[in-house]
Structures are given as structure tokens and as C-alpha cells.
Design a protein that fits this description.
The complex is a heterodimer of chains A (264) and B (286). Chain A is mostly helical. Chain A has a single domain, classed as MetI-like fold, CATH 1.10.3720. Chain A has 12 helices and no strands. In chain A, helix 1 crosses helix 11, helix 2 crosses helix 11 and helix 3 runs antiparallel to helix 8. Chain B contains 13 helices and 2 strands. In chain B, strand 1 and strand 2 form a beta hairpin. Chain B is globular. The chains are: A mainly alpha (264), B mainly alpha (286). At the A-B interface, helix 1, helix 3, helix 4, helix 5 and helix 6 of A face helix 1, helix 3, helix 4, helix 5 and helix 7 of B.
């Protein structure tokens, strides 16, 4: 293979700068000592990190988002594992339709889902409720887990399960001792990607969450709509660092490209 | 035993199906029906079914301008993502293992960071007191701050940043399927790198470019956070208009009708492009 020509390499680094610049700015601004958005070059301070610890509404929203993301990812995984195994291993009438239905939340714009759910939850008396928000997040992250479970289960040699069955193992034992351990990497990756997607979701939650159930992105958006101050930058920096840790874990174990395009 | 086996897949998919039907399909059907009712101020939703919301959208220049802006923006963002995303995907395949690992985190990692945070970064960069303007002023290139925040240009820049990873991902996936031997064969026969790229590599990744383009287009047309934060109140697009109708004017039927029209246009474009691709590039898929 020939080496990359210079112009392409220069382009690559410009591209990297373009991708990183806004995130780097947020991190830099968070260390300012001023009361407004400014670069911290004439004296860095942790003023806005102390302010963050005292901003109880942000802290509450953070924990709420964390709990919501864990609940939605877990519920979605519980539903996606059996569904994914059925779709990967069985040929049945309506299989393609069922798969399309389960993946359909990926196709619907979140703003449309948001207003549809706001109307629906209002009609059934669940608007602004925590369970409504959890249900909404569960359906939108379900496709992410499902894609990874199907991919993991498809690449699995069915003869092992058949061997166990012919040796007298019950269906449940085969599932617990053979099938589940083999698809665990796909399931774990799916849970993580579902968790991250739920945690980051803004557009649908804006409609579904009430003042009492604001998630962190919704809280941040409402804050930005009023004023952009360095408090947002310090909150964002914490989020960027946490995401970076998860990102490195995902990249080590799965490869970011594969997990993001839904293949394990 | 046999009957039991045949029903097993349905039992296994039932929980996911029921939840998706209840919280996606049913609400969408109800949203469509909501768009067919009139809005009565003071009362809320009227009782007589009507097409009034749709007639309003199709006859009012105010909505024409918003739809034109939204799809103009989506097309421009898609083209820019193709122009910078395709070469970047190619570079990724050619980097050494270690640099590729770092570059992948830089290029795809932002997908895992909330859109609110990424857009906030652009607000910091693009504002009148922002970093780019301070640099421009300090270098003496301009005497007045350049207005980028709250402009069409600003929204397009930030949206390209938010969406270009999807393009890189799609093109990179199709590049990985290429047989490197075809490239080497062309080169050993004396083709220069630009020729190889143009005649050998690019034609084979067109399906990846188109599927990435469709994803970017659909997401750009329905993006909310970036146009809302960078575009501000006056530079309205369809999703921010839906937000205003729902949570500002409380005119839910009109907001529902806007959503229906948005989804139908995005669907029509996707299906049109798919049809075109199947006819024009049939051989690529065989």
C-alpha cells in the first residue's frame, strides 16, 4: 500500500480539529474565573465547579437521568434479548414485519414521537409522570439493543445448543448455560449504548418530561434558552469526561464503529 | 410439541411488540387524527373533523418559508457531510492501526456526547464575543464582529459537526467491504491515486454515501436542539415551529399537522432516492 498523500493528511487533521474544537471550548470555558463565558487564560479557577455542586436542580436532574437511563436500558434489554433470539434463530411468518416494527422508533423523528407521546400520555392521564418518561425512553432505545442482540445471535453456532438438547438439557437450561453466555457481549454492549442514548436524549424528553421530571439534557436546554453561562460549561465538562470513559470501554471491547453501526 | 414450538417466536417477541405498538404506533395514529381537528382558542381542540390545519400550512407563506428553510438547510448539510465525510472515511481506512484507533474516537466519539453539549460548544465559538470573532478581531482581519450566531450559516456549521459522524460511519463500513486487490491492481497497471479513487474506489462506495446521505438528511430535517440554540427564535425550522405550536401557542392540532407533513416529505425523499438508486446503480448491489 502506498502512503497517504500530504493533502489528505492535512485534511484529516483539519477534520479532527473541527470535531474537537467545540468540545475543547466547553472544557476551557468551564475553568474561567469570570461571571460570563470567557477563556481562562488570565487565571483559571474552579469557581464554576463549586457553583455546580451547589446547583441542586442540576444535581437532581443528573441523578434522575442516570436512574432513567439505567431503567430504560434494562427494560429494553429484557425485551430485546428474547425478541433478538427469536428473530435470529427462527423463521416464522411475519418475522420481517415484526423486526421492522421493533426497529421503527429509529425512523421516526424524535420531535414527532415527543408530541405524539405528549398527546397520548395526556389522554391516558400519564403526562409528566416518571413511568411515562421511562416507557418513552424504553421504546426509543429498544432498537439499539435489538440490533446488537440479533447481530450477536446470528453469528452463533446453533449446533452447540442442539448438542446440549440432545444430551437431555431442558430448553431453559440450554438458554441459561449455553445461549445466554454466548450472546452476553452483544447484550452488554447493547445495554451500554441504550444507556448512553437514553441519557443524552433531549428532543423527545422536552415534550414528555414535566418541570418535576426534567432530565439533565432538558434542564440544560431550558437553561441555555435563558442564558449561556459557565455553569453549563462545567456541567458539560463533567459529562464529557464521563462519556469519554464509557467510550474508551466500548472501543476497547467492541470497536466504536461496530457498536455504533449495530454490529458486534 | 410442534404447535408449541411454532408459537415460541411470537411469545418471545410479544413484550417488545406490545410496548412498541402502545408507545409508538398508537400515539402516532392518534397524532394523525389530532391533526384533523380544528383548534378553537380558549377551548382547545374542536369537535368537527376538518382539513383546515393542512390548508393553513399549504396556503400560508409563513409556513412555506419555514419548510423551504428546513429542507434547504437539510440538503446543504447533507452535501457538506458528503464532501468532508467521504474523504475522511477513506483516510480512516488508510491510517496505521494506532492512529486509526485515536482518530476513530475523535471522529465517532462525539456521537455519544449529547447534542446539547456539542451545540453549546458552537455557541461559545460562534458568538459575537465568541472565540472565532475574538481571533478575527485580534488578527485585524475584521473590525466588526462577524455575525454567525443566529444565522443560517451558523446553524449549518453546527449541524454538519453533529451529523458528519453518521456519514463517515456509513462510508467507512462500505469501504471495509472493498477488496484492496482491486486498488492494487489499478495502481500496478499505472493508475495514479486520484484516478484510482475516482474510477475504482468511489463508484464502489456510492451505496454507502447514499445511505449515509439519507440518514443525515432525515436527521437534519428533523433536528431540534441545534437550530433552536444556534438559530434562535427568529430562524425557525419545522421542528422548532412544532415546539412553539405545542408548548407556546398550545395549538396542538396545527403542530400535529406540521409533524405529519414533515414526516411525509422525509419519507417521500427517502423512497425517491431509494428508487433512483435501485435503477441507476443496480449492478453495484449485485
Amino acid at each position: 500500500m502506498t502512503k497517504l498523500p500530504k493533502p489528505l493528511l492535512v485534511f484529516h487533521w483539519l477534520f479532527a480539529i473541527f470535531m474537537l474544537a467545540p468540545l475543547a471550548m466547553v472544557v476551557l470555558v468551564s475553568f474561567t474565573s469570570k461571571g460570563y463565558i470567557a477563556m481562562p487564560f488570565d487565571g483559571a479557577s474552579l469557581r464554576w465547579y463549586r457553583a455546580m455542586l451547589e446547583a441542586s436542580d442540576f444535581i437532581d436532574a443528573f441523578w434522575r437521568s442516570l436512574g432513567l437511563a439505567a431503567a430504560a436500558a434494562t427494560l429494553a434489554t429484557l425485551m430485546a434479548v428474547p425478541a433478538g433470539m427469536a428473530i435470529a434463530w427462527h423463521r416464522f411468518a411475519g418475522r420481517d414485519t415484526i423486526l421492522a416494527l421493533l426497529l421503527s422508533p429509529l425512523m421516526v423523528p424524535h420531535v414527532v414521537l415527543g408530541i405524539a407521546l405528549l398527546r397520548f400520555l395526556t389522554q391516558i392521564g400519564g403526562s409528566g409522570s416518571y413511568w411515562g418518561l421511562t416507557a418513552a425512553h424504553t421504546v426509543i432505545v429498544l432498537p439499539y439493543v435489538l440490533r446488537l442482540v440479533v447481530a450477536a445471535a446470528t453469528g452463533f453456532d446453533r449446533s452447540i445448543a442442539q448438542a446440549a438438547q440432545s444430551l437431555g438439557a431442558s430448553g431453559w437450561t440450554v438458554f441459561r448455560r449455553i445461549e445466554l453466555p454466548l450472546i452476553v457481549p452483544g447484550v452488554a454492549g447493547g445495554w451500554l449504548i441504550a444507556f448512553i442514548n437514553s441519557f443524552d436524549e433531549l428532543t423527545m424528553s422536552i415534550f414528555v418530561a414535566s418541570a418535576g421530571t426534567q432530565t439533565l439534557p432538558v434542564k440544560m436546554y431550558n437553561h441555555i434558552a435563558n442564558t449561556i453561562d459557565p455553569l453549563l460549561a462545567s456541567v458539560s465538562t463533567v459529562m464529557i469526561v464521563l462519556t469519554l470513559v464509557l467510550m474508551i470501554v466500548l472501543d476497547r471491547f467492541y470497536g466504536l464503529d461496530r457498536i455504533l453501526s449495530g454490529k458486534t | 410439541m410442534n404447535a408449541h414450538r411454532n408459537r415460541l417466536p411470537y411469545w418471545l417477541t410479544a413484550p417488545g411488540m406490545l410496548v412498541t405498538l402502545a408507545f409508538v404506533a398508537l400515539p402516532l395514529v392518534l397524532l394523525f387524527s389530532l391533526s384533523l381537528y380544528p383548534f378553537v382558542s380558549g377551548v382547545g381542540i374542536g369537535e368537527q373533523m376538518t382539513f383546515a390545519n393542512y390548508t393553513e400550512i399549504f396556503s400560508d407563506d409563513y409556513f412555506h418559508a419555514i419548510f423551504a428553510r428546513t429542507f434547504g438547510m437539510a440538503i446543504l448539510v447533507t452535501l457538506l457531510c458528503i464532501v468532508i465525510g467521504v474523504p475522511e472515511a477513506y483516510v480512516l481506512t488508510r491510517l496505521s492501526e494506532r492512529w486509526r484507533a485515536v482518530s476513530v474516537v475523535i471522529v465517532l466519539g462525539p456521537l455519544l456526547i449529547s447534542v446539547v453539549i456539542r451545540t453549546l460548544g458552537w455557541a461559545v465559538l460562534l458568538g459575537n464575543e465568541g472565540v472565532i470573532n475574538n481571533l478575527l478581531m485580534a488578527s485585524g482581519l475584521v473590525s466588526e464582529p462577524v455575525k454567525i450566531m443566529f444565522t443560517f450559516t451558523g446553524v449549518v456549521i453546527a449541524m454538519v459537526h453533529v451529523l458528519v459522524p453518521f456519514m463517515v460511519l456509513a462510508v467507512w463500513t462500505s469501504l471495509q467491504k472493498l477488496d484492496p486487490a482491486t486498488e492494487q491492481a489499478a495502481q500496478s497497471l499505472g493508475a495514479s491515486l486520484p484516478t484510482v479513487l475516482r474510477r475504482i474506489v468511489f463508484p464502489q462506495v456510492i451505496p454507502g454515501v447514499l445511505s449515509g446521505g439519507l440518514i443525515v438528511f432525515a436527521l437534519a430535517a428533523s433536528a431540534f436542539a441545534t437550530p433552536a440554540i444556534i438559530g434562535g427564535r427568529r430562524l425557525k425550522v419545522v421542528p422548532t415551529t412544532i415546539y412553539d405550536e405545542f408548548l407556546g401557542n398550545l395549538n396542538w392540532p396545527l403542530g400535529a399537522a406540521l409533524a405529519v407533513v414533515l414526516v411525509l416529505i422525509v419519507l417521500a425523499v427517502s423512497m425517491g432516492v431509494n428508487r433512483l438508486v435501485e435503477r441507476r446503480w443496480k449492478q453495484v448491489f449485485q
